[in-house]
């Protein structure tokens, strides 16, 4: 296997953390997004959607999307289980993973990509250029901030996001929290449960890769 | 169990189709989105994110997000399998389900909600009002259209989206295709493989509910 990565970006970080939590070592191919390597014909042959991460299997099959890569590895290496252990637990992991994606990670990305000069014509991932929409800088921030109270409430009685067990929802959570802090969203200041949880999960070796 | 639904909306339709494909009958509670019933305190106690679908279990536990509901039912009722059957198949179902969501369904929703007068202050789902951003009407359409060639190519050699077996990716696909056609995106005209696939999957009884 080969893992197409870009170290500073949040999406490949999610899969990289998942790989580390499974105790796996997969050779990394670093894709230089700042040099637009992901928009090259060579990379489009790997992923026509021009995004990292991507996992290339030994027979050349490519799996894209961080959660799809993670699910593949969960099936091959079920221990420790990171997608839940029974029907309701699996549903809750799916629900919270998606809630954090939709209500926090995507809005933070929206704010960041519509603000940063580096993304002036690249406000969305994918093969097509889209120019920035200035209104989305503030909208993205507000959307993300609106979700933090619910996230904090969920952690009031839970050590990890869905209960006693660390899961992919925690991986999405810590990657999202760090990304949100890059655009100075006060994730930790006003949310004591998120802060307590963040201090624990961000100290895991997988969070430091 | 109780299924909180809204018949005309695409997200609950995805879960409704899934339930029908499993041969299940779950009592439906229709939520009147046009009358803002989902923004009421009563519904916020069910889902603080104010979205349908939601599945309420007999003990009062609520599962939100159509894919989380589907995954719960897949675990309880594994036949027919709709999330894939082995590691690679499950990864491909996850990948294509997400690709269709991110590159087509979300952009179609973006275009629709920023255009329709009914959503003037409700351009996004969730508990917070966001006014429409007119630039997103055209942007959403362009994003969705940019994905159709890849979708069509995937169906050139596959009966269903990920191969010989109907899966949740096909459910997401048919719900997305119908939604796209509501805003007059020519999903079928220029894409013969999508057309052939659409004619087959939209004829299933589950697609007519």
Task: Identify the notable features of this structure and list them briefly.
2 domains; Glutathione S-transferase Yfyf (Class Pi), Chain A, domain 2; homodimer; 4 strands; 47% helix; 209 residues; globular; Glutaredoxin; 4-stranded mixed β-sheet; alpha+beta
Summarize the structure.
Chain A has 7 helices and 4 strands.
- Portion of residues in beta strands of chain A equals 5-15%
List the domain count of chain A as a whole number.
2
**Low-confidence spans of chain A: pLDDT under 50, at least 5 residues?**
none
Work out the largest interface and the residue count of each chain: A-B, 38 and 38 residues
What Rg of chain A do the Cα atoms give? 17 Å
- Give me the oligomer status: homodimer
Order of helices and strands of chain A: EHEHEEHHHHH
* Helix proportion of chain A: 40-55%
CATH topology of the largest domain in chain A: Glutathione S-transferase Yfyf (Class Pi), Chain A, domain 2
Which whole number gives the mean pLDDT of chain A? 97
What structural category characterises the helix and strand content of chain A?
alpha+beta
Quickly count the helices of chain A.
7
């Amino acid at each position: 296997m080969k893992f197409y990565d870009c170290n500073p970006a949040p999406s490949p970080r999610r899969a990289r953390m998942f790989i580390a939590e499974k105790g796996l070592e997969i050779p990394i191919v670093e894709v230089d997004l700042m040099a637009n390597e992901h928009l090259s014909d060579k990379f489009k042959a790997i992923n026509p959607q021009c995004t990292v991460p991507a996992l290339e299997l030994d027979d050349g099959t490519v799996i894209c999307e961080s959660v799809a890569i993670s699910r593949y590895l969960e099936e091959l290496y079920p221990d420790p289980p990171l997608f839940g252990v029974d029907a309701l637990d699996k549903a809750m992991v799916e629900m919270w993973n998606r809630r954090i994606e939709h209500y926090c990670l995507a809005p933070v990305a929206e704010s960041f990509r519509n603000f940063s000069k580096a993304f002036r014509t690249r406000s969305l991932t994918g093969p097509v250029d889209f120019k920035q929409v200035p209104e989305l800088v503030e909208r993205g921030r507000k959307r993300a901030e609106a979700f933090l109270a619910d996230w904090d409430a969920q952690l009031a009685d839970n050590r990890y996001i869905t209960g006693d067990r660390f899961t992919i929802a925690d991986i999405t959570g810590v990657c999202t929290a760090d990304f949100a802090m890059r655009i100075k969203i006060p994730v930790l200041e006003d949310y004591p449960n998120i802060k307590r949880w963040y201090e624990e999960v961000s100290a895991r070796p997988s969070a430091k890769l």
